[in-house]
Amino acid sequence: QVHLVESGGGSVQSGGSLRLSCKASGYSVYCMSWVRQVPGKGLEWVSGISNRDEIYYADAVKGRFTISRDNAASTLVLQMNSLKPEDTAMYYCAAGSSRSGSRDDYQYWGRGTQVTVSS
Questions:
Q1: Which of 6, 28, 60, 112 has the greatest CB tally within 10 Å of its CB?
Q2: What is the mean pLDDT of residues 34-53?
Q3: Under 8 Å CB-to-CB from 72, ≥6 apart: which residues?
Q4: DSSP letters along the chain, please?
Q5: Which residues are bridge partners to 33 per DSSP?
Q6: Which DSSP string corresponds to 55-82?
Q7: Residue 110: what are its φ and ψ, rounded to 5°?
C-alpha cells in the first residue's frame, strides 16, 4: 500500500512560481505523475516520470514545469514557473503511470493540493 500526500499549493499571480511536493509512504519506485482537475472538467495529465526516470510533460506545461523525484526521500516534486490563470486546478500526485490522463491507470492517489493563479 502506498500513501501519497501533496503539499505546496497556494495562490499566486500570473507569472509566479509554486513548488509542489508529494511525499510517499510505503514507497517503491513507481511510475508517477502529476495530474490536475478543474471542477466540472475531466482529468488532465500534466507531467510524469517513469520507474526508469524517463520524464514527460504535457504540451501545455512544457518549458514551464519541471518534475523530479528523490527516491531516498520518497518525494516527487513539481516545480511550476511562469504560471498562468489556466493552470488553476486541483493538482494530484498519482502512482501507476507516467503518461496517462485516465484515472483507471493509476493505483494510488493523493488527496490533492489547490493551485490558483490570478491574472
A1: 6
A2: 95
A3: none
A4: --EEEEE--EEEETT--EEEEEEEES-----EEEEEE-TTS-EEEEEEE-TT--EEE-TTTTTTEEEEEETTTTEEEEEE-S--GGG-EEEEEEES-SS---GGG-SEE---EEEEEE-
A5: 48, 94
A6: EEE-TTTTTTEEEEEETTTTEEEEEE-S
A7: -85, 180
**Could you count the other beta carbons within 10 Å of the beta carbon of residue 3?**
11
pLDDT classification of 72: cutoffs 50, 70, 90 = confident
Q: What are the contacts of 46-53 at 24+ separation with CB within 8 A? A: 46/78, 46/91, 47/78, 48/97, 48/98, 48/99, 48/100, 49/76, 49/98, 50/98
Q: Is the pLDDT of residue 63 over 90?
A: yes
Residue 17's pLDDT is what? 98
pLDDT tens digit string along 85-117?
A: 999 999 999 999 999 999 999 999 999 999 999
